[in-house]
C-alpha cells in the first residue's frame, strides 16, 4: 500500500513539474513595501511595464518578479540577498529606496557576485566598490552629483548661505560630504552649518530643530531625508512666523512615500519647497511619443495607478525601474543564458559594462550607460549624469512638475 502511495505521489509531482515545465528566471525586488510603499510599487510597475514589452520572456525564460519587503531594515535586506544566492533560478536583485542596506553590506554583495540593479537608493558609496569585481549598477540620482545640483539651485534662488538638515544615516552622511565639498569649492572660507535628525522625528522635535536653524540666520534649508520626516519638518516650518520661514531645497527622498499626504496642503502658500528629480515627469507635457506609448502600456497594466486624470506617485521610481528593465532586455539579447545563474550574472555584468547599442528609455536614450569600474572612472556604474538631474515642484494635486529652463524645454 505504502509503495503504491509513493508511486502515486511521484506520478502527481511529475505531472506538476511537466505542467509547470517553463524555464523561469526570478528577479528579487528588495524594497520597502511597508513604510515607503509608493516608491516600491512605482519601481515594480516601471520594471514590469518594460518586461511586458517582451511578454515577460527572455530567450524562452519566463521572468518573474519576487517582491521582498525589507521594511527599511538593513538586516532584512541582507537576509533577502542570502535567500537570493540560494535560489538556483534567481538572476539578479532589483533594489529599492534606502541606501543604508547597500552601503552597509556592499562588501557582501560584491564578494558574493550578487548582481544588483539600483533604481532609487542614491548613496554615493553604493556603486563605488574599489574593485573590478563591482556587481552594483545604478540608474538613479547619485549623491556625488546631487550635491552640486542642490547647491547650484540654492544659489540660483539667491541662497548663498544655506543650512543643511540631514538624516543621521549613512545616506545623510554621504550627502554631507558631497554638499560640503561643493559648497567649499565656491566659498572655501565660509562655514556650512548642519543639523542632524533621526528617523521617526515628530513635529514637536522638528519645531525645535527648525527654530534652532532659523537662529543661525541662513537664507534657505537644504534637506536630505525621507517622506515621513520631511512632512514633519514642513509642518514645523509652517508653524513659524511667516516672516521667519525659510525656503526648502530638498533631496528627492521625500517623494518616495506619503509626504504630500502629510504636508501637501502647506506647500501652496505656507512653505516654499523645490525637490530634486531625474529629468523626466509625466506631468511635463507634451509627452514624447515614446513616453506616451509607455504611459498607455502602463495604464493597461495598472489602471488604478495610471488613471487619466490622476498621476503616478513616486514617478522617478517608475521611470528608473522602466529604464533598467529596458537595459536588462537589451543586455540579455547579447548573452547566451544557461542553467547556471552564476554564469548568467557574469555574462550580464560584462555586457552591462560594454552595452554599446542605443536603448530608448524615459529619462533619456542610453548608449553605453555603464563601463568597467576603475579608480580613475568611479562613476562607471552610474547610468545618469549631472545633466540628467533637475529640480521639480509639487502641484496642487500632489504631482511633481519639473522646473525646466527654456533651453531644457527644447
Task: Explain what the structure shows.
The protein is an alpha/beta fold and 410 residues long. The protein has two domains: 22-142 and 305-385, Rossmann fold (3-Layer(aba) Sandwich); 144-278 and 390-409, Response regulator (Rossmann fold). Helices cover 40% and strands 17% of the residues. The chain contains 14 helices and 15 strands. A seven-stranded mixed β-sheet has the order 8-7-9-10-11-14-15, with helices on both faces. The chain has a six-stranded mixed β-sheet with strand order 2-3-1-4-5-6, sandwiched between helices. The protein has a two-stranded antiparallel sheet with strand order 12-13. α2 packs across α11 (289-301) and α6 (143-156) crosses α7. It is globular. The relative contact order is 0.14. Mean pLDDT is 92; it is low at 1-19.
- What fraction, in percent, of the residue positions are helical? 40-55%
Content-based structural category: alpha/beta
Number of domains: 2
Main CATH class of the largest domain: Alpha Beta
The DSSP helix count reads 14
Fourth-level CATH superfamily of the largest domain: Response regulator
User: CATH topology of the largest domain, what is it called?
Assistant: Rossmann fold
Strand order of the largest sheet: 8-7-9-10-11-14-15
Number-wise, the strands total 15
Helix and strand sequence: HEHEEHEHHEEHEHEHEHEHEHHHEEEEH
Poorly predicted tracts of residues = 1-19
What's the end-to-end separation, in Å?
Answer: 78 Å
Strand content: 15-25%
The mean pLDDT is 92
Principal-axis shape? globular
Radius of gyration, CA atoms, in whole angstroms: 23 Å
Largest sheet geometry: 7 strands, mixed
CATH architecture label name of the largest domain? 3-Layer(aba) Sandwich
Protein name: Branched-chain amino acid transport system substrate-binding protein
InterPro entries: BCAA_transport, Leu-bd, Peripla_BP_I
Family: Belongs to the leucine-binding protein family.
Keywords: Signal
